[in-house]
Amino acid sequence: MAASTRTSGTGSAAGLSGDAQIQLVLRELIRRGGRAKTGDLYPTVESTLNAKGFTLSEQGKASLRFFINKVAVDAGYVHPHDKAAPGWRITERGREFASADGSSEERAIDTDTGKETLVLPNVARGDAFEQYVLKLLKAAYPDYAWYHQGRDKRRERGVDFVGHRFGDKNGEKANIGVQVKFHQPHNAPTEIEWLKFLSGCFARRVDAAMFVTTGKLTGEQRREAQEANVVVVEGRAEISRLAKRYGLAEFELFTPSHEGRSGACEPGQ
Description:
CATH topology of the largest domain: Trna Endonuclease, Chain: A, domain 1
Distance between the termini: 30 Å
Strand order of the largest sheet: 7-8-9-11-12
CATH architecture of the largest domain: 3-Layer(aba) Sandwich
Number of helices: 8
CATH class of the largest domain: Alpha Beta
Mean pLDDT: 89
Low-confidence stretches: 258-269
Largest sheet: 5 strands, mixed
Structural class: alpha/beta
């Protein structure tokens, strides 16, 4: 298709999700030996858009920069900018995400209808949110050593983080199990997910369980949480309140889309 007949737009306008654009970038980093500058990464997305009849607009480039220097960095897929080593460097976690097939479907309960529904996966933002919650846990529980069980989804078994008390503190629980869900505000975990979390805490014999979600729980799940003494941190407002209490800025990726951000050129260019 001739370039003159292509539509200039963003990756999302051409049907490429943020996750898909990040994966293209990560695969290009791998092809280049694990490191590249921003200008080297535009063509890999551009070529995919060309096949769809699009070219990457300036707004699209700004959005792609945001996906790289904010979402991918916060998710742990690329290393933060280092003045001593210009360019973006892929991490081991980024290599794992680059090789994912992207075909997995996610389900949640729509609390407005009470029915289970398919939801658009936001893997990269979800991983970034897990990293954010880990910072919050470390701030709230400084005497605990935290293991990120959820990094390997195949072996997660319903719990993303396990905290073990370090030292002998009177009145503190020895072990804490935490599950993190990055859901839309009106979505709740499916019954399978919820029961997986409860059984995962039981299997690990944790002394305290915590469920952190950007969405909601159903009424039945709240009742079960109360009966099982599960600490529930539910919704953006509560997460932000607690984060502020422990000196953390609000999580920047709550909203689903950042298309149209000005996306100033970052030092990794």
